[in-house]
Specification:
This protein has 288 residues and is of the alpha/beta class. It has helices at residues 16-26, 47-54, 68-82, 101-109, 170-176, 188-198, 225-242, 248-268, 272-287; strands spanning 6-12, 34-40, 59-62, 87-91, 95-97, 114-123, 126-132, 136-137, 144-145, 156-158, 165-169, 202-213. The strands form two sheets. Strands 1, 2, 3, 4, 5, 6, 7, 10, 11 and 12 form a ten-stranded mixed sheet that branches. Strands 8-9 form a two-stranded antiparallel ribbon. Helix 2 links the parallel strand 2 (34-40) and strand 3 (59-62). Helix 7 packs parallel to helix 9 and helix 8 runs antiparallel to helix 9. The radius of gyration is 19 Å and the shape is globular.
Length: 288
């Protein structure tokens, strides 16, 4: 019996060696019927040439400028839909995936009413420590509540799944549409998860499937200026897009406390560029 066709989308921007390691991992997958597409966001190194030489069977899509990870995902989605893929998997280029992970993910995503599924994701430099197990949404503050200490043994529902490693059903893409490119990078999956659930689909965490993540390499690492700017701006964009007027009475105090906490941390670690970027993102998010 032929398995459903899965297109795996990897977005790359100037991280040739990291992307090659990810592609090598993907080629170890036991699942038989899949294609890999690398969307290159105008890398200035020789990523395109080297990937083509090492993995000639990998398809590549080239952007003539860095359009952000969200636009990269959308290019991959569109390519997969034209190819009549049954499922599309997004996976960060700074990850390594377990060989049997895709089998578990596709099996779970085939269930009636399920729209998207995600594996259990661990830190690459602390292989037993959970980076993401999905999250639930607080109905008042719209904050995400995560539990990284407890590893679920069975498939469980979630309100949020990270785009670090995410399988999306074809009908979801056709019914809900693509990701919102206003988010550029970060929080795009929070917006998309919200829209998918609003359309009536379930989101599932599949703990039998495992991925290891090197965490924020494309943005320069945790608390880098790029990460702080886009996180600050796009979280506010998410609230402005989806929050009801009454929820702002709960959102504003929580976000203010978070801003103070982040500011104090960046001051304590003397990350002055990140601090400026963080407040620039906040102000643009508020005024944009």
């Amino acid at each position: 019996m032929i398995k459903p066709l899965v297109y795996i989308i990897v977005v790359n921007w100037n991280l040739k060696e990291v992307t090659l390691e990810c592609l090598d991992s993907l080629h170890q997958l036991k699942y038989g019927n899949f294609r890999i597409v690398v969307v290159d966001n105008h890398s200035e190194d020789d990523s395109i040439k080297v990937i083509n030489e090492r993995f000639p069977g990998v398809e590549q899509i080239y952007h003539n400028k860095n359009r952000g990870s969200t636009a990269g995902y959308n290019s991959g989605f569109q390519h997969a839909l034209r190819a009549k893929a049954d499922f599309v998997m997004l996976i960060n280029n700074d990850t390594v995936i377990e060989p049997d992970a895709l089998d578990y993910l596709v099996e779970a995503c085939q269930k009636t009413g399920v729209g998207m599924v995600s594996p259990l994701i661990f830190y690459a430099d602390a292989p037993d420590k959970i980076w993401s197990a999905g999250a639930m949404l607080n109905r008042l503050t719209m904050n995400l509540r995560e539990n990284r200490k407890h590893i679920p043994k069975e498939t469980v529902r979630r309100d949020f799944l990270t785009s670090c490693a995410l399988v999306v059903k074809q009908e979801v893409l056709e019914r809900v549409g693509l990701m919102d490119e206003d988010f550029f990078v970060y929080a795009e999956e929070r917006d998309y998860c919200y829209r998918v659930r609003k359309a009536g689909y379930q989101l599932l965490l599949v703990p039998q499937a495992k991925v290891w993540h090197k965490v924020s390499l494309s943005s320069g690492g945790g608390d880098s200026p790029n990460e702080r700017y886009w996180m600050a701006k796009n979280i506010l964009l998410f609230y402005k897009k989806h929050a009801a007027w009454w929820q702002w009475f709960f959102i504003l105090p929580v976000r203010a406390a978070s801003a103070i906490k982040i500011t104090m941390r960046l001051i304590a670690t003397r990350k002055w560029k990140s601090l400026r970027s963080f407040w620039s993102g906040l102000l643009e998010g508020l005024s944009g």
